[in-house]
Amino acid sequence: MIPVAALLVCACTARISRVSSDAAQVIREFSATSADAEMRLDRFVAVRCPELSRTRVQELIDTGYVRVNDKPASKGSLHLRGGEKITVEISERPAIAARAEPIPLEVLYEDEDVIAINKPAGMMVHAGAGNVSGTLVNALLGRGLKLSQGGDPLRPGIVHRLDKETSGVMLVAKNDAAHAKLGEAFQQRTVKKTYLALVEGVLKGETGSIELLIGRDPIHRTRMATPRKSWRGAAIANPRAARTDWRALANIDRTTLVEVQLHTGRTHQIRVHFSALKHPVVGDTLYGAAAQWRVGKVTLPNLQRNFLHAARLAFAQPRTGAWIEVRAALPKRLRDFLNQLCVAAGEPQSRIDAALAAYL
Question: Do residue 32 and residue 80 come from a single domain?
Answer without folding.
Answer: yes
